[in-house]
Amino acid sequence: MQRTKIKELLTGAEVGNDVLLKGWVRTKRGNKYVNFIAVTDGSTIQNLQVVADAEKFPEETLKDVTTGASVAITGELVASQGKGQAYEVIAKTIEVLGKADPETYPLQKKAHSLEFLREIAHLRFRTNTFGAVFRVRNTLAFAVHKFFNERGFVYMHTPIVTASDAEGAGEMFRVTTLDLDNLPRTDEGKIDFEEDFFGRATNLTVSGQLEGELAAMAFSDIYTFGPTFRAENSNTARHLAEFWMIEPEMAFYDLKMNADLAEDFIRYVIRYAMEQNREDLEFLAQRLQEEDKAKPQQERQEMTLLEKLEFVVSNQFERITYTDAIDILVNSPAYKKKKFQYEVAWGVDLQSEHERYLVEKHFKKPVIVTDYPKDIKSFYMRLNDDGKTVAAMDILAPGIGEIVGGSQREERLELLTQRMDEIGIPTEEMWWYLDTRRYGGCPHAGFGLGFERLVQFVTGMGNIRDVIPFPRTPKNAEF
Ligand code: 4AD
Ligand code: MG
């Protein structure tokens, strides 16, 4: 007999037939007449209830059918008499494939805290919460490819190991095969990277953008979707040292077209997850409501998770310039009451508290902030006519803050090299990048969306460590 996934069994398509299901035991309860075994196989948040007649399956036979054990069960799929499920299986055979000793198995019936589950990241996939989160993550990843491919974008694989620092922020993880206990030195006593594997210093990529720009100069529209690495020592609920980024890059786009695309993209992937993962999202929404009950009134969510998502997909994002944002902040009650911890002034970057004020308190919707001062943004952003600001955009989302960073790129060779000189980025090393400005350069733009921040937004999970299977954060890379 062929195994059928539980998601399919629960549609009732095979009712009246004998079926084979395989999965893991969630719970087992029973009395002297009958045992009820809830089984999951990860295909859906729903368990399938298996009914085992106590005459046929006495408790001694079922002793290894404990929470966490893997089982193969055959039986007839029938419409359920009981409440809580539409279909159930009347067991004919039950085989335990892998036991899970109840004395030591950490995931017992009770609810566990997210902090505890983080310490057993190798097992947390098996909980309802992480099952839902990672199914939604999968759908969102698929939706990313679907969105761009429907629009004729070419998926470009950019390198993980690189010699350049795309963001110029110096937050790179070095990649080396040099013997750390015995580093080769040059005559001046510096580490001799010529002896290293690649014959030069290399690092893990912080962004695929620069390589993406090269490809956009041939395919018009491309996107990357891969892991990126930042050695920033930020221990927050929104930073990872290893995160996945989606970076589209489009030739012949200006900043407005870039912002339009980013907005369409975010709405599209959220809508797709709402269609595909309704039950998972309802479960996660319920979870948040439970969490809210423990909070004081003023900290509770105004909207449920699904209401929030529906609102985002059906309303335009707000668009303001950085200069307007500073105005709003300086005139806000929060500023007057000295509620902000960090300085607000033109020329100073927005901190997460400011971003969240703008989206959560002022506009109450996602906001696209454009035209930042050039000195707080990366070297490749296009200088505006005012000579002070660049054609940058950040998209800020409620509960998250920055979810997208992007810009129109500086396509004018002279202005670009001048900027690189000012900041001290060696133009000789970036000759390959500058060649796009020398040969057939054109106006172009792109953005980067932090995939985990998107997953956080859609699932409502408060900590970014809970939306990536194996989070990499400072002092933490055990699994
Ligand atoms: O704003 P960032 O640094 O922009 C870039 O990397 C550009 N090269 C993108 C581009 O224009 N192609 O990063 C983009 C996004 C941020 O908005 C944020 O969502 C996410 O990447 N991000 C992080 N996510 C998790 N952990 C971190 N440490 C992150 N740093 C950035
Ligand atoms: Mg940014």
UniProtKB/TrEMBL annotation:
It is an enzyme of class 6 (ligase). Keywords: Aminoacyl-tRNA synthetase, ATP-binding, Coiled coil, Cytoplasm, Ligase, Nucleotide-binding, Protein biosynthesis. It is found in: Cytoplasm. Residues 134-469 form the Aminoacyl-transfer RNA synthetases class-II family profile domain. PROSITE patterns: AA_TRNA_LIGASE_II. Its EC number is 6.1.1.22. Residues 271-301 form a coiled coil. The keyword ATP-binding applies. InterPro entries: Aa-tRNA-synt_II (IPR004364), aa-tRNA-synth_II (IPR006195), aa-tRNA-synth_II/BPL/LPL (IPR045864), Asn-tRNA-ligase (IPR004522), Asp/Asn-tRNA-synth_IIb (IPR002312), NA-bd_OB-fold (IPR012340), NA-bd_OB_tRNA (IPR004365). GO terms for biological process: asparaginyl-tRNA aminoacylation. One of its GO terms (cellular component) is cytoplasm. Homodimer. This is Asparagine--tRNA ligase. The lineage of its organism: Bacteria, Pseudomonadati, Bacteroidota, Cytophagia, Cytophagales. The gene is asnS.
